């Protein structure tokens, strides 16, 4: 697939997103590279390595579980897609790529909307039942960790201004990966701190991200030290590291684990460890299938944890906590996990938030943690 290209200058990259209203499109911002990639107008679903080699970029996503029943997730995910138009901003330059005909993108000002909304926050009884079920599995040694989640429905008085939400996500979460995917009137978006897998040439990077504490204006540095030395959070984090490393060992012997540190976000601190590997044989998409879901998103052992989630969570995860990423024609790219996220449909927002339950987890503390994580979406409204 041959693309034409031209240099452009948009005051706000979201002008590209706005130009293709009602067309299938995606947005991906990588804070590590300060790079924007957006695509618009579905061109082709990619089904082979050979087809991928002909692509400029492809957007790829998978649902958390293979089977989808909830209608609101219908048609979203489990595709790798090439688009007719791409906007790429990196190294201070903006480039428009087009498959056949070029387009003129009008510079627009993004109007920031302050949505009036209400949402029910009375699901604590449901949470207690869910927590109790997985806690029983942990206490009986059937499972070491289970990541449980909430679906919070937010009702807005007007249709949600998605461009405004995206602008807020980018401004309020500068260290996070910002993503959005629009199809058939619905938008899944979020600001995630977590890399599932990055692959460039033979180099692989994955994040272990588990263990959380809220930030504090008065003693934020102390909060970091508390997190680094908290036995419950350190244990939860080690489960994730060990699982990722053990999976990698099945395919490569070249693995290096960084020292655990702190990843600081707007409202939270997380325990964070980079895990590196080298592999010449496998593709990025193959690695994504191997690693998803890590114990940071599902639990450990995976099969037991996932069965508990299927049995006791009342909502369907869809794209929440799932692999979302960009891959180029060389097969290089990056996948993040769709957390701190929401599905927007008209004036309804379905926000998702979760946390890991291990031995010595406290039901109320974990619920409060999910409320703190929910702020990413609520503040963007």
Question: How is this structure best described in words?
Answer:
The chain has nine helices and 20 strands. By secondary structure, it is an alpha+beta fold. It has two domains: 4-98, no CATH class; 117-380, Anthranilate synthase. It has a 20-stranded antiparallel beta sheet that branches. Strand 14 and strand 15 form a beta hairpin. Helix 3 (124-139) runs antiparallel to helix 8 (302-312) and helix 4 packs across helix 9. The relative contact order is 0.20. The model has no long low-confidence stretch (mean pLDDT 94). This is isochorismate synthase. Keywords: Isomerase. Its EC number is 5.4.4.2. It catalyses: chorismate = isochorismate. Belongs to the isochorismate synthase family.
Distance between the termini: 39 Å
Helical content class:
25-40%
* Global structural class: alpha+beta
Radius of gyration (Å): 20 Å
Assembly annotation:
single chain
- Assigned CATH class of the largest domain: Alpha Beta
Could you give the count of β-strands?
Answer: 20
Stretches with pLDDT under 50, minimum 5 residues = none
Q: Please name the CATH architecture of the largest domain.
A: 4-Layer Sandwich
Q: Sum up the overall morphology in one term.
A: globular
| Count of distinct structural domains | 2
Question: What is the helix tally?
Answer: 9
Mean pLDDT: 94
The description of the largest β-sheet is: 20 strands, antiparallel
The CATH superfamily name of the largest domain is: Anthranilate synthase
What pattern of helices and strands is seen along the backbone? Answer: EHEEHEEEEHEHEEEEHHEEEHEHEEEEH
CATH topology category name of the largest domain = Anthranilate synthase
């Amino acid at each position: 697939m041959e693309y034409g290209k031209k240099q452009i200058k948009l005051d706000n990259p979201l002008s590209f997103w706005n130009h293709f209203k009602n067309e299938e499109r995606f947005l991906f911002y990588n804070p590590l590279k300060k790079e924007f990639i957006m695509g618009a107008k579905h061109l082709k679903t990619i089904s082979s390595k050979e087809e991928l080699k002909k692509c400029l970029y492809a957007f790829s996503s998978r649902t958390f579980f293979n089977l989808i029943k909830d209608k609101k997730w219908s048609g979203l995910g489990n595709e790798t897609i090439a688009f007719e138009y791409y906007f790429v901003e990196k190294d201070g330059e903006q480039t428009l790529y087009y498959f056949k005909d070029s387009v003129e993108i009008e510079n627009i000002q993004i109007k920031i909307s302050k949505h009036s909304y209400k949402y029910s926050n009375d699901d604590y009884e449901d949470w207690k039942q869910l927590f109790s079920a997985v806690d029983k599995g942990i206490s009986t040694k059937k499972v070491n960790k289970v990541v449980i989640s909430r679906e919070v429905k937010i009702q807005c008085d007007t249709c949600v201004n998605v461009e405004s939400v995206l602008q807020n996500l980018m401004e309020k979460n500068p260290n996070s990966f910002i993503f959005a995917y629009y199809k058939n009137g619905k938008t899944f978006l979020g600001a995630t701190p977590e890399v599932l897998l990055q692959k460039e040439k033979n180099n692989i990077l994955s994040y272990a991200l588990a263990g959380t504490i809220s930030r504090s204006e008065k003693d934020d540095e102390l909060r970091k030290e508390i997190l680094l030395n908290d036995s419950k959070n350190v244990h939860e984090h080690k489960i994730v590291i060990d699982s990722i490393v053990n999976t990698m060992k099945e395919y490569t012997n070249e693995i290096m684990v960084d020292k655990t540190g702190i990843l600081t976000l707007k409202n939270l601190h997380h325990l964070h460890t980079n895990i590196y590997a080298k592999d010449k044989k496998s593709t990025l998409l193959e690695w994504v299938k191997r690693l998803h879901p890590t114990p940071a998103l599902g639990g450990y052992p995976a099969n037991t944890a996932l069965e508990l989630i299927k049995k006791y969570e009342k909502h369907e995860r869809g794209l929440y906590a799932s692999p979302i990423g960009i891959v180029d024609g060389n097969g290089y790219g990056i996948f993040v996990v769709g957390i701190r996220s929401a599905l927007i449909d008209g004036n309804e927002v379905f926000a998702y938030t979760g946390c890991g339950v291990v031995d010595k987890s406290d039901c109320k503390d974990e619920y409060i943690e999910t409320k703190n994580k929910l702020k990413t979406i609520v503040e963007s409204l």
